[in-house]
Specification:
This protein is mostly helical. The longest helix is centred in the last third of the chain and has 30 residues.
Length: about 230
């Protein structure tokens, strides 16, 4: 049994089967709560708990799927190239919107952390929650935060964006493809971008663009907000 669960194929197949099961449920009962990614995460957690299989053994194979985040993000350059004319036309609103969102997001996080008496290094670990994993770890490392906490909040933020993002977009009657892409990609990074791609290639391209600009902006915004509010 130990040889089976420590084999990389185990983690890969478990992830794929959990997602496929989530897809079947979502097609049968389409609802934000039945989002395949959310269901797959829940299925894997329940399965590992019931079988007493450690996350370390599962991640031997799961890490291979995690490595695909970077090339899949880079591949977003294809729809971005096809929608380059839109990016040029909306460049001012794109930059202002993303930079303002980063300041508001980080400031709100810092204020909440201070109100609840959260320790400094724990609070700064929450800052890059809307940044894709590779960049979020780098930001937290430079600020001497806790990378484990950052990884958890990055995943949670991505899943919540995938689940609640479409709901809020519908409630607010937002149907502009550029706005949809920027909001989902700038908040939910790679996971949010996957949701944006379901709307169309323009939304996916804008979400991919938002990932890069948001990550770079957080590099400068996070230390500044930490000094102004948390210190």
């Amino acid at each position: 049994m130990n040889e089976l669960v420590s084999n990389p194929i185990f983690g890969i197949m478990l992830s794929i089967m959990a997602y496929l099961l989530g897809m079947l449920i979502f097609r049968r009962f389409p609802h934000p709560v039945t989002t395949p990614l959310l269901l797959a995460t829940a299925f894997i957690i329940i399965f590992l708990k019931l079988t007493s299989i450690s996350y370390k053994d599962y991640y031997v194979g799961g890490s291979y799927l995690n490595m695909l985040i970077v090339p899949s993000t880079v591949a977003l350059g294809i729809p971005l190239y096809r929608s380059f004319h839109l990016m040029k036309h909306h460049i001012r609103s794109i930059l202002i919107g993303i930079i303002a969102a980063c300041f508001v997001n980080t400031s709100f996080t810092a204020i909440i952390a201070k109100l609840f008496g959260m320790k400094y290094f724990l609070a700064i670990s929450l800052f890059p929650k809307s940044v894709t994993t590779a960049m979020a770890i780098g930001i937290t490392d430079k600020m001497h935060g806790m990378m484990t906490i950052t990884l958890v909040v990055v995943v949670i933020t991505g899943i919540l964006t995938s689940v609640l993002g479409p709901v809020f977009l519908k409630l607010l009657h937002i149907d502009d493809p550029v706005a949809i892409g920027l909001s989902l990609g700038g908040t939910g990074h790679a996971i949010g971008t996957g949701t944006a791609l379901k709307y169309g290639h323009v939304e996916g391209a804008m979400a991919g663009l938002a990932i890069g600009i948001t990550g770079v902006t957080y590099v400068f915004v996070s230390p500044l907000i930490a000094q102004l509010i948390l210190k």
